[in-house]
Amino acid sequence: MQNYFRRWRLAHDDFSVRVFFASHRIRLTQALALPVVLAIALTHSAWVERSRAVAVGLFVSGLALTSIAIIGRLWCAIYISGYKTRSLIAAGPYSIMRHPFYFFSLVGSVGVGLTTQTLTIPLVFLFIFALLYPMVMRREEQALLSQHGDAYQDYAARVPRFWPNLKLLAEPERYEVFPLVLRRRLSDSLWFILAVGLVKLLEALRDAGVLATLWRVY
Length: 218
Known about the structure:
By secondary structure, this protein is mostly helical. The chain is 69% helix and 3% strand.
């Protein structure tokens, strides 16, 4: 009986705001991207002038996190492509956390932010993620609970939602992949590379005097 009420609460604990964010997350993210890019274009890192070592450290850390994000999202794509609406995936990255795509997306966003050689911009990315994506994850969990019932409830009880538990890692010896779907998924990870390139392009345009510097931030 307790499990029944828990499932009912998870399936019906919904609000219009949560539904709106979950249903429009891509468009909202794109809408937020424009002012963020504009801010980056007009922002200069104060660390470059104050401590070159810190500035270089931030950039290298950003590249490292971006690389981890790309590899992680590709890892997720192998397991989820072609299966997302068909079965409950609990292997590979999905064996150590329930939302690995969002986890690696956050890692990549923070990484891209760090390549601006500031701490402020990655904190802005972190704030945007914390504002939007917990509702998205909650919405997806409701859908999976409704679709898979007890199987998902058992999965959710042993696998953490967001922060990975590497001790739980489980991978099959072989896994069937759907190439057409996988190829579409792989292209989703390219934006991290493009984003880092855009950051460096904007930096070069500022150095050349094409773009003005309105703010200096740490």
